[in-house]
Sequence to fold (374 residues):
Amino acid sequence: MLEVRNVSRTYGEAHALRDVSVTIQDGQFFSLLGPSGCGKTTLLRIIAGFEDPSQGQVFHKEKRIDNVPANRRRFNMVFQRYALFPHLNVKQNVAFGLQMKKTPSAEVEQRVSEMLSMVQMETYGTRGVTTLSGGQQQRVALARALVNRPEILLLDEPLSALDLKLRQQMQVELLSIQRRLKHTFIFVTHDQEEALTLSDRVAVMNKGRIEQVGTPQEIYEYPKTEFVARFIGSINVLGGEVGDGAADSLSFVGPGKRPFIIKASRDGSRPLPSFAKGTKVSLLVRPEKLKLLKSAPGPEQNTLEGTLKEVLYQGPITQLFVQPKETQGPVWVISQPNTAVTARKQFNLGEKVYVSWLPEDCLLLEKDGNGSGG
Ligand SMILES: Nc1ncnc2c1ncn2[C@@H]1O[C@H](COP(=O)(O)OP(=O)(O)OP(=O)(O)O)[C@@H](O)[C@H]1O
Ligand SMILES: [Mg+2]
Fold:
């Protein structure tokens, strides 16, 4: 278990990390996700030992390690730029760490070839690394880090230099390697889809803080802050305030003073929020929870009237964009799967439409400080 406790890091006036605490269990694929400059690399470098925290501690297996030098932590890091030795061939690059540790040459030979076959580079052993493609170099960098059997592998945006196809292929490879070796992987990315796909758990970071840690599903379905909700996937937002409460529901007073109803999620994993009447909040709904209708539905549904602005066919789904009548805010996005039924349902641009959703399918969150919201 790796534990980061109340770690802060400042560079002069700049706060790269502010009171970060997080626990990472052994054998997990754990991702640090957040926008550029939020402190991901700084946190990774502090865990690796390349950087000291200004405040706080780091523990590994209940022993304090933030005063232990990097080369004694048994962690390995894969950098965003592969940093291979250009004058060595593939095998020599992978063998380097073992040779430094004076590992017997028969063992070096065996472990290097094992690693190269794991990353599917076994036929490239004698190639100079500068003659390899980006994806091949990336795989050599991975083999070079893994051959040392690190207890924790730290990966700083290792796939960001790759094109989409190769990136997806490498994601699958990384995951299968991690499942086979059962090592702890701490993976930095600013790509939310990549984090959701690969991780057992995700920490979402914003401006030097961790806003939420959870499984991909928890982060997507039950974001705790507006920042997390907006950063992961796309989401529609209305600004307003809390109205009256009832036994199993709460009302939200949106633009035009119209009430919307909020309920706990059906499976009970998201309870009814407990805001006081009058609290400024945002109502948020994912595009796939919305239905588009030609006439107003019954009162058991939340409804927003608007004008259909755009229809984008995207293969498996169609995205529809609606300008709500009662807000000057951004258009709402509705995403519909292209089943045989929906494909035939025709809407015309400029048409008056109704966007509707169930009271249990939306979130109510405190308005965040950025002044965002519909
Ligand atoms: N050596 C340094 N000196 C001064 N400021 C630094 C230093 N290293 C990082 N910072 C600042 O700390 C903040 C966090 O940087 P960090 O590299 O951790 O971000 P990041 O989340 O990895 O971003 P990116 O996604 O762009 O790689 C940034 O504002 C950055 O400018
Ligand atoms: Mg970085």
